């Protein structure tokens, strides 16, 4: 099991996968927006999206878990 | 005569403009979003008006709301600062229509310089050198590839309406261009509502050097020399200084004259800046014109002794410049370091609560800060929280003072780029003035894992 974590504080701009999707390593999971910058957050390993813990528009802090991927 | 100015901006530049207004005996009006309720600039203004939610479209870009506040408060002029509405010709027009002075150039010149393609044409007409490239917008990937092969790779693919590096990419081959063209055009369309793209030859080992201009409404134009702004990350400036350690006296003179003649050709009024790329042989090429006050204007103020905001207001009042080019001199050397709320290694934003914000004070140290201790930096706006400006009789003296000040700066609670700034002031290439726009990328290759 892999936790996808926010690497910066910001708002969730877009969620680009859904629960049950199969994702590859380096595939974008969500796009965060902070201070005029959009940063894609990608999966570090391939697997299936088990859970998405945020909604579009949510504020997340650095280190918050965004999604859980099961290998 | 202007007696009350509304500042259509936030943060350090709002404070900066208010300071000069107070010095001139002019009343100030702040407008602010819900995210900025506790910001120092809201406290400093004589009157403050809440204009909307944090999102910029509902607050700092809401032209109609801002104009309504201007009328309600009785402001007779609007200072737009930089960013937001500062280069929006429609906003300037609306101010003109409402009988409110827009402190800046005419909307016509702003529109012309807002289109990079049109700006290139205007500069060519004024005999200002431009980077070899396309005269018109490139319509398709195929046309782009054909042109790129005529100019020769590497080329810069740029959005005509672009800024801040968005919609811009270096391409080295047909393949890369094919991949980059549509995605950048689409991005430019999303961000600027204009997906026109053009191509320019990539100038190798380029420095970014710009000329500050002041032009009154009576045809008098002077330049306030250059600023060297080569130290950048993500195509945004990090350290700026004046004068440039690189250009010769004759290049300085030629660049100044070119900028003045460009302003003459355009019929430019108020403060403006012409940005040039300068190659290793001191050839210079027009890059773009900024029709507003620049973030880095303080370094010019420090070496010339001229308050640029005061000049902007005087010009907007219809007054003639009170000095000539011949009377202007460079005194000493000034450097500005931008303090960003960001990770110093990855450059990712780092908003949050600042528990401690302490920058040493002293002679030749000037701090333009949007924040204080016990202050919450929100994720809604630009990550620049402060500017530290130092001055010395020589470049070496200025660098030493900058390093010492940064080393005694304490900012706690969020991450900032201060550690990177300190490293730069210790870097041999920086000390020797050997700084191209690739300086951070080449010497602090931090973006890659």
Describe this structure in words.
In chain A, about 0% of the residues lie in helices and about 55% in strands. Chain A has no helices and eight strands. The model of chain A has no long low-confidence stretch (mean pLDDT about 90). Chain B is about 35% helix and about 25% strand. Chain B contains 15 helices and 20 strands. In chain B, strand 12 (about 270-280) and strand 13 form a beta hairpin. The interface of A and B includes residues 7, 10, 11, 37 and 62 of A.
CATH class of chain A: Mainly Beta
Largest β sheet strand count, sense and barrel closure of chain A: 4 strands, antiparallel
Tell me the name of the CATH homologous superfamily of chain A: RNA polymerase II/Efflux pump adaptor protein, barrel-sandwich hybrid domain
What is the class of the largest domain in chain B in the CATH system?
Alpha Beta
Largest sheet of chain B: 8 strands, antiparallel
Query: What's the structural domain tally of chain A?
Result: 1
Query: Using CB atoms under 8 Å apart, which protein chain pair has the greatest interface?
Result: A-B, 14 and 15 residues
User: What structural class should be given to the helix and strand makeup of chain A?
Assistant: mainly beta
- Shape descriptor of chain A: elongated
Radius of gyration of chain A: 11 Å
